[in-house]
Amino acid sequence: MTPHPLFGGALSAVIPHSAADISELREIPDNQEVFAHAHTDQSLIVELVEYQAQVADQDAVRYHFEDIAGSNKALEPGTFEVTSVVALPKPKLSLSECNSAWMLTGTQCVSKFNEEARNTVTLHLGLLRLPQFSTDVLITFNDPQSISPDSSSASAVGTHKQPWTVQEFQRFLQTLTLHNPGLFG
């Protein structure tokens, strides 16, 4: 349960077991850290995004969910749904600098790599708002529920060796710690 350094050690968190750092395989934008489960099609993305001052705290995580749906071309009726939005109690978070924290659970029907095949993915989003740094920290846990046989992800079906759990995602959110505020410029 040792915290893993993120963004060159400016942040850290306890990452789930069997996590592969995708930056070792391909280029990742500077504002992201991306991990994939070694044996499933699950992924975890930590993203530093612009603080959306015009969006109320209680609506911000839904705003980011819909933004992701747009990027995933999953905005048509029936291709995305929010099932829950809850406030995360600040005393349970290591990131004491956050103004408010939220967790959303929803589903999106998405395709990978612009394929025709669509997969049903549960998205668990954590949003930690840092207005003093003009930053929202967005953590996305992609947990596929149904993978099309025509998807490039189909090879991961049936290999679910100890998939990540929502509890591991919540532990990541709770252990996220800021070590160097210079990360935000």
Automatic annotation (TrEMBL):
InterPro entries: Mog1, Mog1/PsbP_a/b/a-sand. Keywords: Guanine-nucleotide releasing factor, Protein transport, Transport. SUPFAM superfamilies: Mog1p/PsbP-like. The keyword Isomerase does not apply. It comes from the Eukaryota. GO terms for molecular function: guanyl-nucleotide exchange factor activity; small GTPase binding; sodium channel regulator activity; transmembrane transporter binding. The keyword rRNA processing does not apply. One of its GO terms (biological process) is regulation of heart looping. Signal peptide: none annotated. GO terms for cellular component: nucleus. Belongs to the MOG1 family. This is Ran guanine nucleotide release factor. It comes from Amphiprion percula.
